[in-house]
Amino acid sequence: MSSSQPEYLSHEEYINRSRKLEELRSLGIEPYPNEYRPTHTIEEVRKSYPDASIGHSEDAAAGKTPQVKIAGRLVLFRAMGKNAFAQIQDGHTRIQVMFNQEATQIPGYHPQGDPPVNAFKLIEKKFDLGDIIGVEGNVFYTNKGELTVFGKNVSLLCKTLLPLADKHSGLIDKELRYRKRWLDMISNPEVHRQFRMRSEILSLIRKHMEANRFLEVETPVIQSIYGGAEAKPFITKLNALDQQMFLRISLEIPLKKLIIGGMERVFEMGKVFRNEGIDRSHNPEFTLLEAYAAYWDYNDIMRYVETLYEKIALHLFNSTKIEVPMPGKEELVTLDLKTPWIRMSMKESLRHYAHLDVDNMNEEAMRRLLIDSGHIAPKEVQGLSRGLLIAALFEIYVEEHLVQPHHIIDHPIETTPLCKLHRDPALRKERIVERFETFILCSEACNAYTELNDPLLQRSLFEEQENRREKGDEEAAPTDEEFLEAICQGMPPTGGFGIGIDRLVMLFTQALSIRDVLFFPWMKPQGD
């Protein structure tokens, strides 16, 4: 065998199943038919016939009970004399099936051999766990009270050549589960339910946005200049123009251009890409919701965001209180998402949780505190402005206390070049902006601004970012001249926000890692 061929081609199970495949074809059975039309899903059968009044096996054999046609993956099989009992699974739902030596047939198959091999024996000997089959028959309840389908016509829909995970231990290796999500979903019904909940949450968000007159739009993924966040981009090339391009790190700039163009409420839910670290709450590509509303400010956005979370909780759990695992600790905590949420300025949170009054601290004292924390290198501290020092102190000394939902408002202007200066003259003088970040379970859940629409101030803030880039800050945003031109033509007062959808789903599905809520999370190549 060539060394370039995958190892599984030499596995005994693959060889045995391949042989069965050829034997089935030689008997006139097509192992990969073009179509099969079930009348019910397994879940529909379970909901339609919830009690034993429909009858027992004798009634089903005589055709006196309801008839169904279902399909699913064979996940359990045990022969018991003239009958065999199996379980098949579609999606995350299973049902028991009974095969009978006399009554069960395979459409199109005529027993062959000496003595002839009937359909019952063929299923027992040539079908394998993992095969996808169709079953047509009558439903009944066993003496033990289990809903069962009496299989009268059984069709092979897909012959599998590789086995499922061990039927007893299941698929428990975390890394293997992430790499081979399809096996994870087959072996662990809870994972299937979790991803169904993810889709339900996305649907709820869209309905909430549309109910509040937001229009869903799509903007470019590949951009000639990146911006809207402080992050290192992925770089690519547009061969047709011999031009360097970037995968978007944010949705912000094009959405604001649409606000300028007269779309007063817009949102997009799509993938963004940041060439950063991978950990419990970060993946290089993730799903981001960004929305902008003309004539709103960050106070309107705060109310809107907390209402969104509250509505999702009420829909999913009929309560604003949800029990979730505390990251990094083997304990559960009860979160209350009922509005209104706690609001504190960044400075207030430092006084309340860290007992630090930065108004009475000079920059050297702040630098010493940051260095003493052990979380930041002395060389990195030296280049930080006062506003960035305050933000770093918050990150190190406050975030770990923000378990219940908090809106942390009024940030230093250095933390973003796209936010409007505070309306309060005293805070404006301190270069405080109308920005808030929402924290839940000590992690950022939302970032929002009263958006900057002053083109002259916007240019000067971009220039500050450029200075940081020249000094080696790879996450500082470049100047976007096209955006500056757009806001010179007028953007109304606007509020905007961004929510990491994957972190939101983690919260509502009780997931401890972002990998648990991504169908295919990024994994290091095997062997590295």
Quick synopsis:
The protein has 528 residues and is an alpha+beta fold. The chain has helices at 12-26, 42-48, 57-61, 119-126, 174-179, 181-187, 189-211, 252-260, 298-317, 346-354, 363-373, 378-382, 386-397, 425-429, 455-470, 481-488, 501-509, and strands at 67-80, 83-90, 93-100, 132-141, 147-158, 215-216, 222-223, 235-238, 243-247, 265-273, 285-294, 321-325, 332-336, 342-345, 406-412, 432-440, 443-450, 494-500.
CATH homolog superfamily of the largest domain: Bira Bifunctional Protein, Domain 2
- The CATH class label of the largest domain is Alpha Beta
Beta-strand share of residues: 15-25%
Low-pLDDT windows of residues: none
SS class: alpha+beta
- Proportion in helices: 25-40%
> First CA to last CA: what distance?
24 Å
Shape: elongated
Mean pLDDT: 93
Q: Give the total of beta strands.
A: 18
The CATH architecture term of the largest domain is 2-Layer Sandwich
Radius of gyration: 30 Å
- Oligomerization state: single chain
Question: What is the domain tally?
Answer: 3
